[in-house]
Amino acid sequence: MESPHPRALCDSAPPRTGVHVLTNTPTTVRWLTSARPTGTTWGVPWPRGVVPGGSSFGLRRDDSAGVPVQSWVTATWPDGSVKWSAHAMSPQPDPSPSYQLVPGGAPTQPDTPVTVTTSGAGVVVDTGVVTWTVDRVGSVLLSSASRDGQVVARDVRLTSLWQAEPTADDGGSAVREELSGRVESVTVEQEGPIRAVLLLEGRHTSDGDTRGGRGPWLPFSVRLYFYAGSDDVRVVHTVIWDGAAEQDFLAGLGLRADVPMRDEPHDRHVRLAGPAGADHRPGFHTEAVRGITGLRRDPGEQFRAAQVDGRPCGPVQDWDTAVSQRAHLIPTWSDWTLEQPSADGFTLRKRTAQDTGWVTIPASTRAAGYAYAGGVSGGLAIGLRDFWKAHPTRLDIRGAASDTATVTAWMWSPSAPAMDLRFYHDGLGQDTFAEQLEGLEITYEDYEPGFGDPHGVARTHELVLRAYAATPPNDELASHAAALNDPPLLVPSPARLHSAGVFGDWAPADRSTPERAAIEDRLDFLVDFYITQQEQRRWYGFWHYGDVMHTYDPDRHQWRYDVGGYAWDNSELSPDLWLWYQFLRTGHPHVFRLAEAMTRHTGEVDVYHLGRWAGLGSRHNVQHWGCSCKQLRISNAAYRRFFYYLTADERTGDLMREQASAERTFVAIDPARKVRGDVYTPDPSALSVGLGTDWGALAAGWLTEWERTGDDAVRDKLLATMEDIGTLPNGFLTGDARLDLTTGRLDVTREQIAVSHLSAVFGLVEVCSELISLTRGTSLEVPEFEEAWLQYCRLYLASAEEQESKLGLRLRGISLIQAHSRLTAYAAAHDGDPELAERAWEAFHHDIGDQLNTNPLQRTAQWSTTRIDGSGVLTPVDEAPFVSTNDASQYGLAAIQNLALIPDHLR
Q1: Over pLDDT 70: what percentage of the chain?
Q2: d(Cα 312, Cα 471) in Å, to the nearest integer?
């Protein structure tokens, strides 16, 4: 193998000259929204050279009292110092409004740490409150949960329903097969003292005779999160679709647990959460298995009050004899079902036994997705985050009148039609590449037979299991349901995040001048607009929640949900980046939640995680996987890094690791095969890699893996290709180059000039800025790469005469002027050139129709919505036809980066 980039031939751990700990400079972190009664994990960035690797961290409250904390490093700078640290804190009975994180400080130890004990049979995790037992293999995730020496729950398991045909239009009666999630491996990823994490992996399979049925399928991963002193376990569940869309129809997917019911029926309780209020705290439907309220005869007020509160009702013989002597005649209710088929309403019903009819219970709109079954001697709650947003969902309680109740949180409700993932149209008349390219001219859809395939896409859900010593008061349940749907997170201020020098060119929001304030208003307008559109257009559902639509149809007053490539956005032109940068600079929690949901969606649903396209994403389409354009620009690790570093979320780490060797995807498919103009078979020694959307995504994956793991091989791939781009006669203007997988090098002899307006709008700007800043002034510096990038930045929006003077020709394909203004701004800031800075702001404001524009102090009426109601729309909506997601994303990124790079030149 050819020698890697020569500058990469340095020690894997560079000398830490000048690295020091600022022990007297604590970092303040505050709650994103509110403190919640559950464990918390968060991330903090540090400036280069400030905190050496291996440093300890202390945590203290506002009153200076020490708080037990567990810390670890999630990324390092090239000098070995800490770039990002992660921290975990147990549930706080009296949380402080903020905390101070002290590098170099001695961490306070918990009174009772979480312990992890492994054996050949399994793993036992003891939080000091609840002992959870995990078997190494088999059809259960958690075999038991014990509190105070008593088993509260058993056999926590995954269940699914499969059928070989879609649900008929009239409901039909398709045969369903029940399968169980069988665990094949258990890995202890972290083991205290504050936080323990277990990773369970396996597949769904039938426990019985599978002849004629479905064999093993649906690979899953489940992470279990335990915190010292906590009575709950957080469950992060990911399922990968590996079926055949024409033959496999998922009719149900759930997490299920058994709950021993030891108490008398009148001391057994069911609680089901309804809609949440402004503070995320829901009200509860409060029931007993055998109710003693509302009877013709009164057992006594104190007994009725006790049952409603979930307290023991007292000995039956103490009740009024008119009731106590007839207690055996009161029906016992065994089963409850809360069904959320859409974002707009749930139904609720119960019955006394499996062979009896259902009784309907008055219900409401949007359930919080939290249910409890148990009694005065203990019970279990199960919850599913974003319950109504990820519909169709369901909560079941079965057998509450028997010795064992079963609770199930359905991520796909068995009451809904079976999941049908077949392609949405027949593709007639699009048999050849030429015909398929014609489709782009009419519906903007890149169709190709067999490519609208979901095989390999995934979905992640967050759930919780909580073991109670007794039926809790409704206020306590409400707090726990709020923690499920609004999980606690500690975050540094925008100024503190910015001071660390992470994520390239951005700065905290600044309204110090009328011009800056006007742009800030528009950035706020765009975020608020998409939040409103998500609600009004009901961008919710199992596969959809977190994504937004691409383009608007003002004639129908509707986003183009049914028109080819104009429907779901799938990260087109980087809305992920826009939202995360806007959060970094504002700290607004509603921006965080919008970006979080997008990261969860785009990283899972829009990307293939196994199969022939593993590692690639799908371009925007009516179905998230429908487009034949499978590219790294969608699976880009740059879109996931923010959420990972701010939360230390391990599943997001998995997604980024998938991109560490993404260059191998070019062997599977040529992303430019339809527009290349020649017949091209991928050659591992000469893979065609675009220097914009392709290399930018590769670089983001390599950079992230390098800073997370210190992997020299990944670093070498990154630095080598940076040098090669700088060596190309025309640098980034070359457009694409040939990559040799064996050497990891680009062919530097290519002399063409080919510019695409898309090259820089999928994270290339951001990753180049980071890489140059990261390596500049170090032994890893690649000056020729920096010059190649500056050449691109200076010339893309240069005058035709200047382009011809520098290159011998005028560049073609120049568009997205506003988006590219930030390239000119980058060159202006680097060169200290006020003329370039003026040109950048002029490009940002110049109205040529391919961006969101207008002068920041004029024509503000355009930046508003219009209310549309009446008979021409299904429901009243607020529309802004001038907004598309392409334009909004690039306006946001250009505004943010221009304000950071050349703020003083804004007029």
Answers
A1: 95
A2: 9
CB contact at 8 A, 153 and 145: yes
Confidence (pLDDT) at 429: 86
Mean pLDDT of the chain: 94
Query: Distance between CA atoms of 78 and 511, rounded to whole angstroms?
Result: 35
Helix and strand counts by DSSP (H, E) for the chain: 20, 36
- Return all residues near 801 (Cβ < 8 A) that are at least 6 apart: none
pLDDT tens by residue, 435-451: 888 889 999 999 999 99
List Cα–Cα distances, 237 to 135, 181, 343, 458, 460, in angstroms.
17, 11, 22, 10, 5
- Predicted local confidence at residue 860, as pLDDT: 46
Integer Cα distance of 571 and 619 in angstroms: 8
For residue 472, what are the CA distances in angstroms to 92, 598, 795, 881, 899? Answer: 18, 34, 66, 50, 51
Q: Is the dihedral of CA 852, 854, 857, 861 positive or negative?
A: negative
Phi, psi for residue 382 in degrees, rounded to 5 = -130, 140
Q: Are 4 and 716 in contact (CB under 8 A)?
A: yes
User: Taking residues 630-644, what's their average pLDDT?
Assistant: 98
Strand boundaries in 685-780, DSSP class E: 687-690, 736-740, 745-746
Q: How far is 247 from 177, CA to CA, in rounded Å?
A: 14
Single out the residue of 589, 386, 596, 598 nearest to residue 490, CA to CA.
Answer: 589
Residues in the chain: 907
**Beta strands 745-746 and 736-740, pairing class:** antiparallel
Cα–Cα separations (whole angstroms), residue 300 to 252, 291, 306, 777: 44, 13, 10, 81
Alpha-carbon separation of residue 582 from 261, 569, 759, 764 (angstroms): 49, 19, 22, 18
**Which 3-state string (H, E, C) describes 595-658?**
HHHHHHHHHHCCECCCCCCCCCEECCECCCCCCCCEEHHHHCHHHCHHHHHHHCCHHHHHHHHC
Tokens encoding 128: 């000091």
Is pLDDT at 461 greater than 60 in this prediction? yes
Tell me the average pLDDT across 365-382: 98
Those residues with Cβ within 8 angstroms of residue 560's Cβ, 6 or more apart along the chain or in another chain: 549, 550, 551, 552, 553, 566, 567
In this model, does residue 284 exceed pLDDT 50? Answer: yes
**For strand 687-690 and strand 558-559, is the pairing parallel, antiparallel, or unpaired?**
unpaired
DSSP 95: -
Instruction: Give the other-Cβ count within 10 Å of 675's Cβ.
Output: 10
The residue among 635, 459, 488, 372 whose CA lies nearest residue 98 is: 488
pTM here? 0.96
Q: How far apart are CA 128 and CA 448, in angstroms?
A: 56
Contact 537, 562 (CB under 8 A): no
Average pLDDT over residues 214-243: 97
Q: If residue 482 lies in a helix (H) or strand (E), which one and from where to where?
A: helix 474-485
Per residue, what are the HEC states of 281-340?
A: CEEEEEEECCCCCCCCCCCCHHHHHHHHHCCCCCCHHHCCHHHHCCHHHCCCCCEEEEEE
543: number of CA atoms within 13 Å, CB side? 18
Separation of alpha carbons 898 and 481, rounded Å: 42
Q: Which residues face 237 on adjacent strands? A: 222, 461
Find the mean pLDDT for residues 71-85.
97
User: One-letter amino acid identity for 277?
Assistant: G
Cα-only R_g, the chain: 29
Query: What is the per-residue pLDDT across 775-817, written as a single tens digit (0 to 9) for each?
Result: 999 999 999 999 999 999 999 999 999 999 999 999 998 999 9
Residue 209 CA, distance from chain mean position = 37
CA gap 23, 497 in Å, rounded: 18
Which residue carries 């009004």 as its tokens? Answer: 536
The tokens for 664 are 């191998």
pLDDT band at 847 (very low <50, low <70, confident <90, very high): low
Select from 356, 375, 182 the least CA-distant residue to 266. Answer: 375
